[in-house]
Amino acid sequence: MGSELKIKESVVRHLFLITILFLAVGFVGCTEGEPDDSLSDIERTFRAITKCDVDTFASYYRARKLNANSILSKQNDGSRLTSFTAASAYGCMPILEYIVKNRGTSTLESYETDNSTALMSLLGRGSDFDRIAVSLLEDTSVKLDLMKVSDEGNSALTEAIVRKSSQIALMILKHPEFQDSQNKSLLLNTRNQYGDTPLIAAIEREQDQVARELLKFKVLNVNIVEGRNRNTPLVAAISRDMPLIAILILEFPLEDINQIFVNSRGETFTAAHLLVKRLETNINFANMGGSRTGRENAQTNVRLYIQLLQHIFRYPGYDPTIIATEYGMTARDLNALFGNEELIYWDE
Questions:
Q1: Calpha distance 157→177 (Å, rounded)
Q2: CATH architecture designation of domain 106-221
Q3: Which of 72, 206, 255, 318 is most buried, judged by most C-beta within 10 A?
C-alpha cells in the first residue's frame, strides 16, 4: 500500500507540473505580438522600425498622422532619430519605401546635433538605398538640406563622392537646391575630417565626371592642400593620370605654380617635375605597354600631358629654370625626350 501511495503522489506532482507548464506556454502564446500598454504610440512605432514590421509601422504612422520628420527616438549622443533616419539606420527598406511614398512633407530635416542629413543617412548602404536617394533627388520639390555641412566638414556631396556614388554626387551638383544656393563656396571648399574637399575626394577616387562638374564652379579654391599627402588638386590629378582634369585646374588662379612638394620618401618635387615623370612613363607604356586598349589610353595621355606641360610653362609666374637647374634637364633634353620641338619655347 505504501509504495502504491508514493506512486500516486508522484503522478499527481508530475501532472501538476505539466499543467503549470502548459498554462505558462499558453500565456506567452496569448500575449506574444500584443502591444505593451506601457509603451506610447511613438515608442511602438519606433519598435516596429527596429523589427522592420511595416504593417505595424503603417498602422501607427497613419493613426498618429506622422511624417518623415517625426521624432521617434533620442540617442545617447543627444541626436534624435526621425522616422526616416531611424528606418535608414536600421536598414529597413520596406519602411523607407513606405515613408517616401507617403511622406506628406516637402522637407526631410536633419539630425538635431551632428548635422547629418536624411539623404546622408542613405549613402554607402547599398544599391537599394541609393535608389531611394535617387528618387528623392529626382523630386525637386523635396528639400534635402543639401547645403548642410557637419562639424566634421561632411556634406551629402562629400559623402556621395567618398562612398563612390558618382550618380548621386552629380545629381546633387545639378539639383536646384544646390544650384540656387548662395552658399556654394562654403560647401565646395570645406575639408572633411580627412582633409579632403569634394574636388580632392573626387580626384583621389578617380571620379572624372564628378571632378569635371565640380570644376564648372568658379568659386572653387584649387589651392587647398589635402590632409594625408599634403598635395594640391593639381598634383593629385597628375599623380592619378588625370591630365584633362589638371588642364581644367590650370584655368583657376594658383597661388604658386612653382610650389615645392614632398613625397612619402622625403623627396621634393614640383608639379612640372611630376608631370615630366608621368609623361615619360606614359610614353614608355604607349610604345611597349600591355593591351591595345592600354597603349591607346597611354597615347591619349601623352598628347594631353604635352598640352598640360605647355599650359604649365605658359602659366603666369612659372620659372622655366626649375627643371633645368634642380633636375638636370635643359630645354634640349626635354625636346629630345619627347620629340616635340614646339614643347619648349623659352630661351635657354
A1: 12
A2: Alpha Horseshoe (1.25)
A3: 72
Report the CATH architecture of 41-104: Alpha Horseshoe (1.25)
Q: Are 246 and 238 in contact (CB under 8 A)?
A: yes
Q: What is the mean pLDDT of each run of 10 residues along the chain (348 residues)?
A: 52 47 40 50 85 90 77 63 82 87 63 64 84 87 82 86 93 93 91 91 95 96 85 93 94 91 81 85 79 85 85 84 59 56 42
Choose among 199, 261, 195, 202: nearest CA to 228.
195
Q: What pLDDT, on the 0 to 100 scale, is given for residue 2?
A: 52
Q: Give dist(CA 159, CA 168) in Å, integer.
A: 10
Rg of the Cα atoms in the chain: 31
CA–chain centroid gap for 243, Å, is 24
User: What cell was used for 291?
Assistant: 593591351
**According to the model, what pLDDT value does residue 35 have?**
47
Buried b (16+ CB within 10 A) or exposed e, 265-281: eeeebbbbbbbbebbee
Distance (Å, whole) CA 84 – CA 100:
8
Residue 10's pLDDT is 56
- Looking at residue 65, its amino acid is K
